[in-house]
Amino acid sequence: MMFNTFKSLAIALALGANMALARAPFNSTQIASNSLVSRRLTEYLMPVALETHEFARVPNTNFVLLTQMSDSELIKIELDAATEEPMAYHAFPMGKNSSSQLHGVWPSTRYPGKMWLSLQAENKLLLVDPGKNLTTPPTVLRTINIPAPGNGPHCVFEIGNRVWAGLKVASEETGKYYVFSANVANSTDHTLYECLNSPVFIKEEPTSGLIYVTQDTDSSIMRINVTSGETKQMPIPPSVGNNAVGMISAYGDMSGVWFTLAGNATGGSGTFGHIGATGEMEFFTLKHPLLGVNAGLLHIADASTVADGPALWLLSTSLLSTNSPDALIRVTFSSNMSSIANEEYISMLTQNAMVHRVLPLDNTVLVSELHTFTLAQLKYNNTVAGQWLPAEAVTNNTVYTQAG
Ligand SMILES: *[C@@H]1O[C@H](CO)[C@@H](O)[C@H](O)[C@H]1NC(C)=O
Ligand SMILES: *[C@@H]1O[C@H](CO)[C@@H](O)[C@H](O)[C@H]1NC(C)=O
Ligand SMILES: *[C@@H]1O[C@H](CO)[C@@H](O)[C@H](O)[C@H]1NC(C)=O
Ligand SMILES: *[C@@H]1O[C@H](CO)[C@@H](O)[C@H](O)[C@H]1NC(C)=O
Ligand SMILES: *[C@@H]1O[C@H](CO)[C@@H](O)[C@H](O)[C@H]1NC(C)=O
Ligand SMILES: *[C@@H]1O[C@H](CO)[C@@H](O)[C@H](O)[C@H]1NC(C)=O
Ligand SMILES: *[C@@H]1O[C@H](CO)[C@@H](O)[C@H](O)[C@H]1NC(C)=O
Ligand SMILES: *[C@@H]1O[C@H](CO)[C@@H](O)[C@H](O)[C@H]1NC(C)=O
Ligand SMILES: *[C@@H]1O[C@H](CO)[C@@H](O)[C@H](O)[C@H]1NC(C)=O
Q1: Predicted model pTM
Q2: Best substitution site from 204, 210, 228, 280 to test ligand 6's pocket, by max atoms within 8 Å of Cβ?
Q3: Structural domain of residue 272, as residue ranges?
Q4: Per residue in 56-69, pLDDT tens?
């Protein structure tokens, strides 16, 4: 029904533009009685900063915390409770000074309402109370100092009763890179796992309980068995792409960890991967000839819905190459998850914005733009993600030879 009314509307609009065909079945009653289906992006300006990095919602509140690394500022953003639209923000300096490099932000489940932050240049993790009001400064409840030879906590996560951080900077003592893990209740109980250059995302595969870590520059995924302490490197085959960055844990039909390949200076390969209970890596490649094949996929989020089944949000970025578009891409899968079924593309409003992270809220999707200090919000009206028709409805990709 939705499809048919939309189709007749689309046909009527298309024909209305061509007077020669104006006698075709144009029914103004029908048009007037239909609600317009729309999809829109809005950019919200944040404080001017070179690097707008991570962001996360404070669970069960209308606040989003966003980190600006280049000046070590934490931006607290208040969302409208009904529309999820950003309404106002307040900036708070974090760390000793503007060189402290605030980067990671992640909600704690062990301490509900509290958030983990990382100060990369101070070699510290913080547990903070973000404060009830927009203008209430965050309170530091606990500081975890990263032990030597670890250096430079970048992204921070909480998995079960442990806090994890990828240490992005080469150790001053050993020249090596490490993944840090500590008991949330007793950080003396900690471990440094030696890894490759450089650890970014850290996630648990739900069935096996193994921890997987993306390492960007050396293009490999490290597997950690926390019980035995054993680690194993799983290099990304160069034939599929390189630079493993974004990773999520997924459940149900998508069970496992999913990760993205951001590409290199030449561009991306539109490829992302999955590791399930068996520990095998499998890869999926986007098909869209313009926006998909060069996509440098930096980040990823679950886009599944009850109505539409398993799906992912993928974020292509110009961060590593201007050959890759800044775009948000939604993919769905065939019924046995063996291949991509559909790709929906949303080009970002500002190209070369170096989009960085994607975060689905309840009804909208937020994307951070690293280079243009903006937060973009995607919103559908009278439809939902996965039902957007144009790309699917028109299959003839003929390029015309005349412009007129
Ligand atoms: C136009 O559409 C309305 C609502 O669907 C319908 O009741 C009406 O008969 C249509 N009119 C014509 C001229 O087709
Ligand atoms: C969304 O659709 C509703 C119903 O058609 C309409 O009243 C509203 O103005 C639309 N909102 C936007 C932002 O387009
Ligand atoms: C911040 O503090 C560090 C260490 O105390 C110092 O090296 C650095 O110069 C300071 N940066 C600024 C911008 O004050
Ligand atoms: C801030 O929050 C407290 C409750 O935590 C409330 O009493 C106070 O009125 C709030 N202030 C503002 C300015 O909203
Ligand atoms: C904290 O962890 C350390 C190192 O594993 C251990 O020796 C100590 O007993 C623990 N403290 C508590 C209170 O459990
Ligand atoms: C992890 O190591 C423990 C102890 O050696 C072993 O019993 C377990 O099977 C390992 N887990 C996986 C998923 O391989
Ligand atoms: C980028 O990666 C592609 C494919 O993996 C490879 O062919 C190319 O040589 C790499 N380019 C650079 C500049 O490293
Ligand atoms: C998945 O389904 C496709 C057909 O839709 C079939 O060709 C393929 O063998 C199936 N793969 C698995 C692992 O079952
Ligand atoms: C695609 O569109 C072009 C231009 O309208 C037309 O010439 C061509 O026959 C169409 N191809 C198919 C397969 O429908």
Answers
A1: 0.88
A2: 228
A3: 2-391
A4: 999 999 999 999 99
